[in-house]
Amino acid sequence: MGTIIKTTTVTLFLCLLLFPIVFSTPNERLIRIGLKKIKIDRNNRLAGEALKASIRKYGLHENLGEPEDIDIVALKNYLDAQYFGEIGKRADIQYGTGAISGFFSEDHVTVGELVVKHQEFIESTREPGITFLVAKFDGGEVVFGGMDPKHYKGEHTYVPVTHKGYWQFDMGDVLIGDQTTGLCAGGCSAIVDSGTSLLTGPTAIIAQVNHAIGASGVMAVVWAQNQLKLNQTQERILEYLNQLCERLPSPMGESVVDCDGLSSMPSVSFTIGGKIFELTPEQYVLEVGEGEVAQCISVFAALDVPPPRGPLWILGDVFMGQFHTVFDHGNLQVGFAEAA
Question: Which parts of the sequence belong to the Peptidase A1 domain (predicted)?
Answer without folding.
Answer: 1-337
